[in-house]
Amino acid sequence: xxxxxxxxxxxxVALVAAATELLAQRGGGPGGARASAPIDLTGYWVSVVTxxxxxxxxxxxRGDYRRVPMTDEARRVADAWDPAADEAAGLACKAYxxxxxxxxxxxxxxxxxxxxxxxxxxxxxxxxxxxRFDAPPASPGEPTWQGRSIARWVRAGGRGSGRATGPxxxxxxxxxxxxxxxxxxxxxxxxxxxxxxxxxxDVAPLPGGGQVLLVTTIVEDPRYLQQPFxxxxxxxxxxxxxxxxxxxxxxx
Length: 252
Prior knowledge:
There is one protein chain. The protein has helices at residues 2-19, 32-35, 53-56, 72-79, 83-88, 98-101, and strands at residues 43-48, 107-114, 117-122, 128-132, 148-155, 170-177, 182-183, 190-191, 196-205, 211-220, 229-238. The protein is α+β, with helices and mostly antiparallel strands and 252 residues long. It has one domain (2-238). Strands 1-2-3-4-5-6-9-10-11 form a 9-stranded mixed β-barrel. Residues 1-28 and 159-168 have low confidence and may be disordered.
């Protein structure tokens, strides 16, 4: 167990060190990030739930926080979770913020908003994420569920990547801040507004045809997490949007 945690910490440090460079990046090169993309992330993708079924497919009971490196304060907050109160307060989307949304079963629709902005829409919770490759606004504005994401391309074998990239020739790396406090899991496991979310998006071919999208998520929260919380989620590419089914957030 200790060896596993040590490995996770080494991986987290490497990924976060690489991702901190994102805040200094401007643009995606001549013609923008869209023209210089080493991989194509656009299209419709559906979740492939191969692990953590009881945390993802149903709302786990209060107190079921297995594998989350929570602080004592986080446990106190989670133990007071009240989904009815969240619904009544208009906070049903607390489990659909950027640190958790890739674990919510459903579909993604990835498109380009412009030459330097990649957009990720989710049918679960009807959330929209914007990954900006150009310089961020001087003021981030009010915190939101999806925060502010600064992105760059990491090319296979490129300097400063901090990780091995997928077989398609590169990956998307992003750092998200300016987050509205929410839940890492739907049973009230909290993350704070000080959270820094680091993500890597890779694509790989499937045996027999098709593609899979691999999303590595690293959540760092000095208030509610004792160490980085690392997860990997998978999505299979779909031929079209015929199964796209937008549904609003639900606290339960």
